[in-house]
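Marked as duplicate of an earlier ticket. Keeping the data here for the record.
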Amino acid sequence: MKYQIAKSTLLFLLLTSMLTAQQMYTVQFDENNLTFNKCESFDIARIKGCLLDGKPGKPLLPCKRIEILIPPNKTCLKIEVINCIYTPLSGYYKLYPAQPPVPLTGIPVNHEFAMNEALYSSSNQYPETCVEIIEERNIAGNKIIALRITPLIY
């Protein structure tokens, strides 16, 4: 089973529709802002300034959402991670799996505990990428993209 976690510092390049419209960003997370709490036999990782996010059954990971203004008349073609430095953390961790959402109706829903056994027993890193585009929208005529950055790799 994989219980090691690595934190990351990443440098990524946002490519838009014109070569002259490249934007480069650096995102860093301070290990001093990383904490772990126990929940039953699992660990919950938290990073100051990040929210916990995950798909049911997969590890619940701290994520940061950032929004970037795209220049007028441009579109985002891709995000390219130029450099990502992973620093293994000492110790072994078993991250709590995200659970199905609870409806706001107040009516309790009985769900079985969700845990993707194949993912937890795999030696592959999760998630596969530390940055992804999660939304594109227009606000007051300005194009904005939202990125999810996941500083921990499980």
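See parent ticket for discussion. The radius of gyration is 18 Å.
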